[in-house]
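Colleagues,

Please find the record for the three-part complex below.
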Amino acid sequence: MRIGHPFHPSAIGRHAALLITGALTLSPFIWMISLSAKSRDEMFDPGFFLLPKQWHAWENYSEALTAAPLLRFLLNGTIVCSSILALQLLICVPMAYALAKLRFRGRNALFGAVLFGLLLPHQVLALPIFILCHKLNILNTYAALILPFIVSPFGIFLFRQFFRTIPDDILHAARLDGLSEFSIVWRIGVPMSVPAMVAFSIFSVVAHWNDLFWPSIVIKTTQLMPPSLGVAAFRGIESGNDYGPLMAGTVIVVLPLLVAFGLAQRWFIEGLTSAALK
Amino acid sequence: MHAFLRTIVCGLACTMSSFVQAEDFKISLLYPNDRTTAGAHSEIRTLFEKDNPGIKIEFLAPAQSYEEISQKVIRGAMINDMPDVIYQGLSLLRGLVDRDLAISLDPFIAKAGGAEKLGYDQGMLRIGEQKGQHYGIPFAVSTPVIYVNLDLLKAAASVGPNDFPKSWDEIAALGKRLDDPAKGVIGFYYQWDITANWMFQSLVFANGGRMMDEGETKIAFDQPAGMKALETLEAFSKAGMPNLPSSQARTAFIAGKLAIFADSSSNLGKAVTEIGDKFKFQTLPFPVPSAEGRLPAGGNLVVMLTRNPEKQEAAWKYIRFATGPVGQTIMAKHTGYLPSNSIAIKTPEMLGNFYKDRPNYQTSIAQVPMLTGWYAFPGPNSLRIIDTIKGHLESVVTGKSTAAKTMPRMVSDVQQLLE
Amino acid sequence: MMPSSGISGHAAHAATSGPARLKTSVIDRFSEPIAAYLFVLPGAALLTILFILPVIAIFVIATTNWTFGSANLSFVGMRNFREVFADSVFRISFLNTIVYVLIVVPGTIGLGLLIALLIEARQSLRGFYRAIHFLPFMATLAATAVAWEMLLHPTMGLVNQAFSALGLPTANWLRDEKTVLPVLAFIGIWQNLGFAMVLFLAGLKAIPIDLYQAADIDGADGWFDRLSAVTLPMLAPVSMFVVVVVAIRAFEVFDTIAILTQGGPGRASEVLLYTLYRESFEYLRTGYGAAVTVVFLGIIVTLTLAQVGVMEKRVHYA
């Protein structure tokens, strides 16, 4: 069905181009995986060997799993990231809808505040929010890892852009049909913006899975560390880095994200189907 | 209002519970992340808790650097939630003392019978001295040493450990001869960017110089001793020393790709276990040209932070154990650091025989008499000064500028930050 | 032009009945703002507490000489700001950041869009290509940094080995002040193109197929025509978002510098957020760091407003 495709270079050209960009993109990862299976001596071999001469993978991976409770860190990451995402959607979707489609006093000022929030790097806010968490007595808990992030200017901005593309007539018609604004948001707005929701979910999970800075400020005990902090445990201070287990630990920590991304991909396909029905 | 009440209630509950549990103390402890010392800390804790039922040591998640320890402690001070005991890098002790956070250990040492009885060498204790009192007891000490890959030296230049050159110029020249890009071998590397300018201070102090004068009113590293130190770095650059990230240099040595390596002796434990018998290596003393030459001690010390008197008693028991003969023996056997406890060093069953069988460790021990404190600049900008100096050292090491041109700039930059 | 849907057809019919229409429009006028306020209340409250108030605190601290952990502080007015503008490190940092942004933003967006278009063009292996190109964004830089360090190693790294085999010039990429910033920018593009790609993919998927059909009927059937008549205009709202966000991320680059170069060699890779972080967190000069923060925010607000202003004008919504 060629009419459907908006942009079609030849199939071979497309594969060639994507394979080249793909290979370049993957090269550090291939190197990382290769390193995770090598022993220390081999790491500095001047020649380029993808496959290690001596498979040290078992040692490196078991070191990564035992020297620090990596599985526990993965669990922490799962709990924290899913909580953050759920709360973000709950809070940011209605707000984005209001900013996109409803008229009310203060709308522009609020949108300005959202944009301003978008610009603020988290390092800047760390100290005041640290004190706030202390006042709320949630330091060194999951709550401290979750609460500061549940309003996401990025999410609000993204959803607002997508909601803006929804034709007003559809919304008028829905209102005339008796749907409350609340239903409109969740039963019309969201299904029409599934690609945006999926994209945002991916970004949110990735960002908080890999966040090193904030957890290092609020988490004191090893049991509560998220994956990023855990991997950092393989860097010693005065005696240098342990590359093999560090790479192995990283591979282990990235895998759940890859799996989640793979699952989320199906939603991309669903998004295509719903768009095609429009 | 509610928050205020909640705090009061919490505070009361906590004090009451601490009365109830007066027997079972929890001491929170923060140490720097280093996988070799982690093993030592674990073992020390296990033994200590066995001998002291009723005191539990809680390890907080290790910090990534000494600087991070300072940050955590200071942040904790702001919210009244500091660790009870920490292990802090020598150069950062001053910052904690200036902020009135560290507790003086002199009363505890005196009550326990005095330094000598506990095995604390005066020279070692001096390292933890600030404003005339001892705020920290060294736990793990390192000195600058030179690691040489004997096999590479022999093969490429027929040099043995006994005819190793004694002056930096000669060492750099030898390194140049040993460079072998075809095999990926680097001849010589000086770990100049170790935190807080430690290796630069090594050169300055070894030449008999100081960073600032006695009264800390004038900069002193521009004196001939300091100037010579900067020129030595320039000579390294001229001899073709590359600019490597420090972690890579260490890994390169262990992989047998670096022939002569000036680095901290703390790397020794790891080097021994990782190198095994892949090649023969030896540690050699850091050249100290001046008769008044000194070397800055590296490593960390134990510091007490808790102000609660009962917790202090428990914390002191732990500190005494960790820096005592048993604790220090454990530490030294796990890592490449030197112990501060002379009883441990002299007793054959503890470390006496251990060191006898390991000549590589003795290089560092022999340098102990020359040790002095790792210098920290005064004032609120002391940390920025470190980075400023590092920037200038870098321009010399990379050959971007000469020692002669860099020194005045370095002095003026540091002077500005001291005001 | 607008695609008809079941709902709107039905509602259009119902809308023509008299009294019902009057009633709903009155309710509409009241309930719309009420609904809006209910929707935005939690978000707005959290925004205030978590973003606005802390920033005000920063502004206040910037006028003091507070160092982290010290028990006292005093107001010094604009002294910190004067110091910021006189500081040569700040100036270098600012220039480096601008150069970095000017390389990363076009690179990321161009490549991200191109790859998204290529992936969407045909059905085969879409998931595979999406995953590959998104991988850099998913992995924490703390670890990929080590891989990059090794790849870029002057003697043992793959990049130099490949380059010398191909006859291209080699360099000590991360430690040569002429190459360090472009190399970091390249790593920045590598990291971020997955991000741009995913957003463009979402935007592409939201374009209704009927639009292409309609364009086809109107005579635009070559790929270039489709691109310019349908795809790019319909991507406009998403594109605006992508440009703004990528620009902000580039301006606020931190991790790569913190892990790989720490601003070196000799400040050649010093960037604004890293300067800010170092002053506040490492040097513990919190008052001065807060002043750097205020100036930094001023710059980035100006740049972003300019961007948004320019683009909002050119974007038309449905």
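The two ends of chain B are 43 Å apart (CA to CA).

Comments are welcome before we finalize the supplementary table.
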